[in-house]
């Protein structure tokens, strides 16, 4: 066992693995690039729909049902299906990832908007705000902590899933796992896994830090409840609980 | 369809392996998470350690965890034990949070009444706290079930037998039907498991239906051995159900 550990440390510290087109910095950049691309597309789809549904309450049942059904779709199955139907290339797996990322973002946006205190919304309307102003100046700022929770869940899910993308000939840190598997090079697999785990934890900490620095002020001036909701929604279970609670 | 009929025996056997890999972690998850949450509620320090630790473990991607675990456990990489342990870790992470929230939501007055009625701590936990927490726990379990069934298929990439094998072999052979059969089979499994959990929850929490059907407070004494639990549940089931959104 200690043999594996020392071999893995040797692999991780070998300068040859830190340079060139298959080096760790390049793989890391690819990983982050795919993640960013998926998040941008998924947010462009999920946020407007979530805002609309949260504000008007229309299509709520459809969204909850859709989010639940999409959650059950196996990531790997969707990836392979898209690749078989659309061919190898960057975009088929990216679209598969987008489909998997939209539900948590949508649920977060919707739950955020609908968790805003009705009195705040009514007061905004009574002050003579137009519907657009109610949405963007009253509901949106108050919903931001919960929406951010959905965003955080989404980013972590994408980082995890992007590791699988390497299986279908794309880059990213997952390459080390599958290259290692083919070569029976366990230190490489373990090294790659540790890099992926480290990346996920680092990104989560950075996102938590951003939340603390930029979002907590608004949330802490809120009544306790919405702050509670912001914390809870960072994990999918309770996001789902909240969303499900809305239907009952 | 023809392919499925010709290979149905294999698909069913993979589905069986898939189910075992998905269900075992749920059972272990409940067995570990519920006592852990109860301990965490009594001890603030432990509570924050449990919450931080579980959310940290939850961020580690499954594929990476499947590969890291053999080194820690001393198992072979193809050993299904790795998958069970990895998914148990995720299940515990999710369920501990759900259980803590559920226990917190139990009315303090009720707990005091139980003590006044002479319940010992363990009996109180088993007969008051735990039953009243079931709806929230089951909500957590349903999420675990769906995500487990999806995550198990990732283990096929390493060669561990389950329905995910249909994806890897479908991709290698450029055979769409096989992949589609795999997706449908996994969706059916997820739906099946979810229905079983919903049914189980109904059986274990009859009072929530009584509350929904007849409104709160009409049948407080249902003649059960534990009338206190039933009546309390009637009161509690409502705020709990709408707690997240109101």
From TrEMBL, chain A:
For biological process, the GO terms are: glycine betaine transport; transmembrane transport
Task: Describe its membrane topology.
Answer: Multi-pass membrane protein
Cell compartment(s), UniProt: Cell membrane; Membrane
Q: Give start and end of each ABC transmembrane type-1 domain.
A: 28-207
- Superkingdom is Bacteria
Sorted alphabetically, the keyword list is: Membrane, Transmembrane, Transmembrane helix, Transport
Span-the-membrane segments of this chain are: 32-54, 61-88, 94-113, 155-178, 190-210
One Pfam family per UniProt: BPD_transp_1
Family, per entry: Belongs to the binding-protein-dependent transport system permease family.
Q: Specify the protein name.
A: Osmoprotectant transport system permease protein
Q: Which organism is it from?
A: Arthrobacter oryzae
Automatic annotation (TrEMBL), chain B:
Q: InterPro entries recorded for this chain?
A: ABC_transp_perm/SBD, MetI-like, MetI-like_sf
- For this UniProt record, give its keywords in alphabetical order, as a comma-separated list: Membrane, Transmembrane, Transmembrane helix, Transport
**Family to which this protein belongs:** Belongs to the binding-protein-dependent transport system permease family.
- Tell me what topology the record assigns in the membrane: Multi-pass membrane protein
One Gene Ontology cellular component: plasma membrane
Question: Which sequence ranges are marked TM in the entry?
Answer: 20-37, 49-69, 81-100, 149-167, 179-200
The protein, known as: Osmoprotectant transport system permease protein
Q: Which organism is it from?
A: Arthrobacter oryzae
């Amino acid at each position: 066992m200690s043999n594996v550990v020392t071999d893995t440390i040797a692999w991780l510290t070998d300068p040859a693995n830190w340079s060139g087109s298959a080096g760790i910095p390049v793989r890391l950049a690819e990983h982050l690039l795919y993640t960013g691309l998926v998040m941008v597309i998924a947010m462009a789809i999920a946020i407007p729909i979530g805002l609309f549904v949260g504000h008007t309450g229309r299509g709520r049942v459809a969204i909850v049902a859709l989010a639940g059904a999409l959650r059950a779709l196996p990531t790997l199955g969707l990836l392979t299906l898209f690749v078989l139907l659309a061919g190898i290339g960057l975009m088929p797996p990216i679209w598969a990832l987008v489909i998997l990322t939209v539900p948590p973002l949508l649920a977060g946006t919707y739950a955020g908007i609908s968790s805003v205190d009705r009195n705040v919304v009514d007061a905004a309307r009574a002050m003579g705000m137009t519907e657009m102003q109610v949405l963007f100046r009253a509901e949106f700022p108050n919903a931001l902590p919960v929406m951010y929770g959905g965003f955080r869940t989404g980013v972590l899910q994408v980082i995890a899933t992007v590791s699988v993308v390497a299986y279908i000939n794309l880059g990213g840190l997952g390459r080390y796992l599958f290259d290692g598997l083919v070569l029976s090079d366990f230190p490489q697999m373990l090294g790659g896994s540790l890099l992926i785990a480290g990346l996920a934890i680092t990104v989560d900490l950075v996102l938590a830090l951003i939340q603390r620095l930029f979002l907590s002020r608004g949330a802490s001036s809120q009544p306790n409840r919405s702050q509670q909701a912001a914390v809870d929604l960072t994990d999918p279970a309770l996001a789902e609980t909240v969303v499900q609670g809305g239907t009952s | 369809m023809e392919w499925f009929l010709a290979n149905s025996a294999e698909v069913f056997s993979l589905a069986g392996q898939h189910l075992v890999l998905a269900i075992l972690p749920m059972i272990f998850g409940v067995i570990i998470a519920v006592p852990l949450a109860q301990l965490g509620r009594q001890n603030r320090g432990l509570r924050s350690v449990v919450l931080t630790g579980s959310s940290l473990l939850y961020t580690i991607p499954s594929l990476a965890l499947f590969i890291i675990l053999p080194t820690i456990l001393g198992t072979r990489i193809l050993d299904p034990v790795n998958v069970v342990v990895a998914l148990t870790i995720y299940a515990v992470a999710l369920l501990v949070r759900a259980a803590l929230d559920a226990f917190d939501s139990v009315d303090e007055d009720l707990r005091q009444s139980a003590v006044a009625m002479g319940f010992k701590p363990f009996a109180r936990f088993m007969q008051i706290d735990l039953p009243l927490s079931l709806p929230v726990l089951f909500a957590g379990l349903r999420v675990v079930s769906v995500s487990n069934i999806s995550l198990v298929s990732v283990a096929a990439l390493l060669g561990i037998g389950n329905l995910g094998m249909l994806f890897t072999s479908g991709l290698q052979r450029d055979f769409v039907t096989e992949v589609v059969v795999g997706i449908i089979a996994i969706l059916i499994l997820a739906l099946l498991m979810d229905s079983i959990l919903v049914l189980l929850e109904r059986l274990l929490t009859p009072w929530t239906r009584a509350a929904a059907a007849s409104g709160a407070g009409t049948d407080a004494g249902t003649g059960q051995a534990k009338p206190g639990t039933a009546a309390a549940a009637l009161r509690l089931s409502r705020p709990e159900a709408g707690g997240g959104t109101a």
